Amino acid sequence: PTGNTALVLCSPATAPPLLLLGELSGEGEALPPGVLNVLAGPLGLCQALRAHPEVTSVTFLGAPQEELQALVWGSPCRGPRLGRPRGGRVVVIVLDSADLDSAAAAITATPATPPALGLLGVPRGQFGDAPAGTLGSVLVGTPIFPTQVFQAPLPALPGRGDRFYPPTLISGAALTLRCLQEPALGPLLVLLPVRGPGEAVAVASALPQSAAAAVWAQDITVALDTADRLPQGLVWLNALDLLDPSGGCAGGATDTDLDEALREFGCPPWEQPPKVDEPLSPLVTVDDPGDPELAQAVAAARGAAPGWGRLPGASRARVLRGAAAALGAGHGTPKDGDNGDTDGSLQRALLRWAAHVERVGGAVQEVPGGKALLTRRPLGVLGVAWSWPRPLALQLLPPALALGNCVVVVSPPGGVGPAQRLRKALVAAGLPGGALTVLPGNSRGSGSHLARQHPDGLWLCGGDADCDWACAVSVPRVWGVPAGLLRAPGQDAPPGAERELELRCTRPHCLWLPGGGP
Amino acid sequence: ELGWISKVYVNRPAVVRHAEQIKNWKTVKGNWQAAWLLKAVTCIDLTTLSGDDTPSNVQRLCFKAKHPIREDLLKALDMHDKGITVGAVCVYPARVSDAVNTLKAAGCNIPVASVAAGFPAGQTPLETKLTEIRLAVEYGAREIDIVISRSLVLTGQWEGLYEEIRLCRAACGEAHMKTILATGELGSLANVYKASMIAMMAGSDFIKTSTGKEVENATFPVGIVMMRAIKEYYWQTGYKVVGFKPAGGIRTAREAITWLMLVKEELGVEWLTPELFRLGASSLLGDIEQQIFYHVTGTYALQHELAVA
């Protein structure tokens, strides 16, 4: 729907369904010819694909890590990164004040994507019985050992052998088991006992590839508290698999990250789509920030992040306003090639974002069956790698800070001066130490250096700052900031820029509260 | 011992959602539907509980109980020799002797169930309740449907409730006891669950959803909660199975089949017998007979073609 044409390269083994899709899309004039093309061939062809001048972005879907490494590890990371393994895993936390029967019924009633996890509060150890035929209720014997596997017998299919995976329940599992690390083959439910809500949150945060979570508890305070602390983007309370009002598909656990990533296939109106392999500009010879310095900066930011992120918007707004006032006051002599804030645009930006963050809240959507609270949460630690020849555009910083992130900026030394002034003003107004760090650095590859410190988000400004796939794979959100977003000082930001910045600084969080009539 | 009472949690929206799903289940068709309908017929407690019951209409009911479906329809289904009768006949205590005599004269062994203990409101003193039960047993009733005092549930007097049901059980003697929980008046699903467990602990053979005289009678959420209680009780004791009877508001054959399907899903096939499952209904039999007539002949019967209960 965004108007791109796609060329899909797949290995011959997996080709048939994709070829059929290509054929079907041409029939009946569903899509004009040439919009969807499917090419079956060895994956080495993708090098040629990347080198082709007309290809603007390359995305990897579902590629296992080893293959990715062989193909693209050293090359710049461009295009939406869907290649990260995406699991539709749902984490179900059942606490000791839960309605066990309803939880069991809901788990077994979810279609398609298996809820691959169930965590139990041990005090209510008895979950039920496991008759051979149904997965309707579940037995938890001793919490850790032995690991028991219950599999429902499948009805025999005439003449076709075993093509389906039987519903399987594994109890007494440990977190190191492979069934938790790899995507599930079929309906698989793994039970992990925990001792309390705190431990449940810790275990749930540590599980890979979980798209959504469900918390079952009748004690409302405990339930809301646990739901709030979970990192998953979609949390259901005493329910499972309800429709995600922000546009997910019904009946399956949605991955809100996917929605966000798909937005990258479109291009903001003020920008031309970038080419894949731009020629890189000559190297600027300045010393790198050494990895230790960067590590320290990121660690400091990480320490400051929870405190800063959880402050109410009004407190953060106050800090920003104080900084704006300080900047306006100390309008002194520019020094050392420092441009200064001659036209007050930075001040205005600070005030604007302060006002914004005081107003912005979440959205409440009411649907039959309950309410969904949609909020956006800060990413955490945001790394900004700046490599354009211009001095650092400070307009990037107010939104990130206002929305609760802690920022580490790496930029060529020309832009560091004004940034340090801003920082001083902010710290004087009450910003916690470590929330904003500006480091001078070599522009080439600064993105990679930052990415190696595992921030929660990474903004790459300029082609030279690009990081390669190897580093980018550990960062959840990488954004190549389009050059058109930041006009010269004095010009207004393009329409939609504010919303774009806001969306890039935060991640969505949806909490489902069922209640009311169906 | 009642320490578990405070740990009972029932999430109402989740149960209601589960019940809504049931309405989307595909139902059986054709021969299988006829079979399920006949199974439902054998589980019916044919009931007449009105103020204007007299020996004559009770007699008519008993004859209908002995021949619930027309002979030729049963012959067409090749089930005429399987002894298809209803599960029981349910009447007020004053009409028990008429029913017993009629059934004896007709030569069939269908048990007569009597409602007792201050049906339907249950707001009578305990002594009169126990006397009523004893007299009903004396008159020949083999099953007794007692009514609990809802006020004990609503005020949380669980020991009192246990004691009351235990005394009624003692008064029943050899007769089979069904405890009517009157779920429409119990306030919350958690109360329904707790009352079911107490009733089973005190010795009921069946738990029944409602008297049929309340505003809200047998609905699927309530049925689900009670069946979960039955399941839990069975697991905890390891041997004692208690039956389930939804009563009131079941008027169509389609609903009867849905109840049977729900019991099979929640409790298992073992519960689909008259010993462990009953449907309390009066006009349901007429509708089932209509559906069987349709299955056999392909058209619906006119009013005069099927015997009135």
UniProtKB/TrEMBL annotation, chain A:
One example GO MF annotation: oxidoreductase activity, acting on the aldehyde or oxo group of donors, NAD or NADP as acceptor
Location of the Aldehyde dehydrogenase domain: 2-108, 162-252, 284-453
UniProt xrefs under Pfam families: Aldedh
Transmembrane feature ranges: none
Domain of life: Eukaryota
PANTHER family recorded: ALDEHYDE DEHYDROGENASE-RELATED
Protein name: A16A1 dehydrogenase
Source organism of the structure: Picathartes gymnocephalus (White-necked rockfowl)
Chain's gene name: Aldh16a1_1
From TrEMBL, chain B:
Molecular function GO terms recorded: deoxyribose-phosphate aldolase activity
CDD domains: DeoC
Enzyme Commission number(s) from the entry: 4.1.2.4
Major place of residence: cytoplasm
The keyword Nucleus belongs to this UniProt entry's keyword annotation: yes
Active site: residue positions: 208 (schiff-base intermediate with acetaldehyde), 245 (proton donor/acceptor)
Matching Pfam families: DeoC (PF01791)
GO terms of biological process kind: carbohydrate catabolic process; deoxyribonucleotide catabolic process; deoxyribose phosphate catabolic process
Superkingdom of origin organism: Eukaryota
UniProt KW keywords: Cytoplasm, Lyase, Nucleus, Schiff base
Pathway: Carbohydrate degradation; 2-deoxy-D-ribose 1-phosphate degradation; D-glyceraldehyde 3-phosphate and acetaldehyde from 2-deoxy-alpha-D-ribose 1-phosphate: step 2/2
Chemical reaction(s) catalysed: 2-deoxy-D-ribose 5-phosphate = D-glyceraldehyde 3-phosphate + acetaldehyde
Keyword match Ubl conjugation: no
Protein localization: Cytoplasmic granule; Nucleus
Any single GO CC term annotated in Swiss-Prot or TrEMBL for this entry: nucleus
Family: Belongs to the DeoC/FbaB aldolase family. DeoC type 2 subfamily.
Subunit-structure text: Interacts with YBX1.
NCBIfam families: deoC
Name assigned to this protein: Deoxyribose-phosphate aldolase
Gene that encodes it: Dera
